[in-house]
Amino acid sequence: xxxxxxxxxxxxxxxxxFLRLDLSRLKALGFLRPHWRQSLIWTRGGRKExxxxxxxxxxxxMLIYRTRRNGGEWRSVCERVSLAFTxxxxxxxxxxxxxxxxxxxxxxxxxxxxxxxxxCHGGVTYESxxxxxxxxxxxxxxxxxRKLGGEISLAWPFPERPKRMRLATYERMKEEExxxxxxxxxxxxxxxxxxx
Length: 196
Ligand SMILES: [Zn+2]
Prior knowledge:
This protein is α+β, with helices and mostly antiparallel strands. It folds into 2 domains: 9-119, no CATH class; 123-192, no CATH class. 29% of the residues lie in helices and 29% in strands. It is built from 3 helices and 10 strands. It has helices at residues 23-28, 123-147, 167-192; strands spanning 13-14, 20-22, 36-44, 47-56, 60-67, 75-86, 94-98, 105-106, 108-111, 115-116. The chain has a 7-stranded mixed beta sheet, with no helix packed on it. Strands 2-9-10 form a 3-stranded antiparallel beta sheet. A hairpin with a 3-residue loop joins β9 and β10. α2 (123-147) packs antiparallel against α3. The longest helix has 26 residues, at 167-192. The protein is elongated, with a radius of gyration of 19 Å. Zinc ion is lined by residues 99, 101-102, 104, 116-117, 119-120. Residues 99, 101-102, 104, 116-117, 119-120 line the site of zinc ion.
């Protein structure tokens, strides 16, 4: 396809635990230039969890991805997300996505079987039942990793044992992290229907 720029190389792996598509991030990655085509990859613990191809046009984005419900058949989805522009008082131009579910102007859409705003995914229920539980597990994982002086990002391997730490203590922390990650995975798949 002439005129497209494809993803890959240094721009390939992206990390995001909540399959969240937000405009500031996309803009920073250069996604919003018209006639731009790029793939975005979600990883957890170095493992690919999902990916999506985003094509950018002057007035809309095309999201191309695969999804499945509760471990069922994979389905290819091609979602069109219209863009809207407003002109704030301080000048410039602010870009918005129109939620494909309700048409509201949003800066962030959340990926599941479809990319929709929070309200369209169940609003408050979604927040309390899933996001909070996921957030708590993630916070605990990060605190375990921080205690070991390692990378808090799940894209990195579990940190090495600090010299002064007892092996039993370290093993216990490692086991707890593994259990939390499993629970996090389960919640993600349950809620988002994503896995690759
Ligand atoms: Zn919506």
